[in-house]
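lol forgot to send this yesterday, sorry. struct tokens for the thing we talked abt
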């Protein structure tokens, strides 16, 4: 049993709890391809069985988020689950100001992962170190924000005493692997000269997959038949975003043994959305299951397909 499963995680459960439920259902190893924090909700892709070898390819896909940012308040965790650190009313901040700052953050930017994140430091996750009272200094990394739009800027609900004097900005963002929306929220506030944090966060897409492709978390226990039917063949899943090819059994055997083959020996079946030079997938004509993740390589006789990963 192997494949990819899209699960809609509600706010509350940790990503590991979702994976545990998937493993219990399918009776084999599983792993998520990009965690969601407990307070966050949205699309979580879980790789099942042998498909766990392909989690890097899924994590490399662009992700889409919607979030509500609280302007005027910062917390130690970067969201409302944490302890307040600083308060300052965002006087004079307009929607136009916020949109101008957001526009300046589009493109490749250096971002420091949040101290309360799953990034490992000497084998220990940063959030675990912070909860033990240890200082964590994470190295900035280059990430890409391809789209960042401020949708609205409004006062919070009058009934929410904790946010009195703050403003709530709703944003929509598409970004690369390794981007932390909590860090993005704090960086945006810093550029405005005010504290800020995330009030609500939802991941609505991973590559070309959206909420409509996901089974609800509750179905993992309540409706196992529906979940089993939703498990996608790895080739079918990756070919939605990666360029895809098929070949005959002999050519596939050469690839799976680690040998490069002429690109002309493969038949293109999908263009995908990921740039060709970042990799493509190769399946066996007329068969489901086996696939090779390959990279293009220029040879003396033209382009070759160089195998990177094999799943049989």
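and heres what i got for the seq, position by position
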């Amino acid at each position: 049993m192997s494949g990819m499963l899209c699960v809609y995680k509600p706010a509350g459960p940790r990503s590991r709890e979702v994976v545990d439920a998937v493993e219990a259902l399918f009776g084999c190893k599983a792993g998520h391809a990009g965690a969601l924090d407990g307070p966050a909700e949205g699309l979580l892709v879980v790789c099942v069985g042998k498909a766990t070898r392909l989690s890097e390819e899924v994590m490399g896909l662009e992700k889409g988020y919607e979030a509500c940012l609280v302007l005027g308040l910062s917390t130690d965790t970067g969201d409302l689950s944490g302890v307040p650190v600083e308060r300052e009313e965002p006087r004079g901040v307009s929607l136009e100001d916020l949109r101008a700052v957001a526009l300046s953050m589009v493109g490749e930017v250096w971002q420091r992962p949040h101290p309360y994140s799953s990034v490992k430091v000497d084998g220990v996750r940063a959030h675990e170190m912070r909860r033990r009272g240890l200082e964590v200094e994470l190295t900035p990394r280059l990430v890409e924000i391809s789209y960042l739009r401020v949708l609205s800027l409004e006062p919070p609900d009058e009934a929410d005493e904790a946010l009195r004097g703050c403003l709530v900005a709703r944003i929509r963002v598409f970004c690369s692997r390794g981007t932390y929306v909590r860090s993005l929220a704090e960086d945006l506030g810093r550029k405005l000269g005010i504290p800020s944090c995330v009030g609500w966060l939802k991941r609505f897409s991973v590559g070309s997959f959206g909420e409509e492709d996901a089974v609800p978390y509750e179905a993992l226990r309540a409706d196992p038949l529906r979940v089993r039917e939703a498990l996608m063949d790895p080739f079918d899943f990756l070919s939605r975003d990666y360029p895809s090819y098929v070949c005959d059994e002999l050519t596939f055997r050469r690839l799976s043994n680690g040998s490069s083959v002429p690109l002309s020996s493969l038949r293109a079946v999908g263009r995908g959305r990921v740039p060709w030079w970042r990799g493509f997938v190769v399946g066996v004509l007329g068969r489901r299951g086996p696939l090779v993740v390959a990279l293009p390589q220029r040879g003396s006789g033209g382009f070759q397909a160089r195998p990177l990963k094999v799943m049989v």
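The radius of gyration is 22 Å. anyway ping me if u want another try
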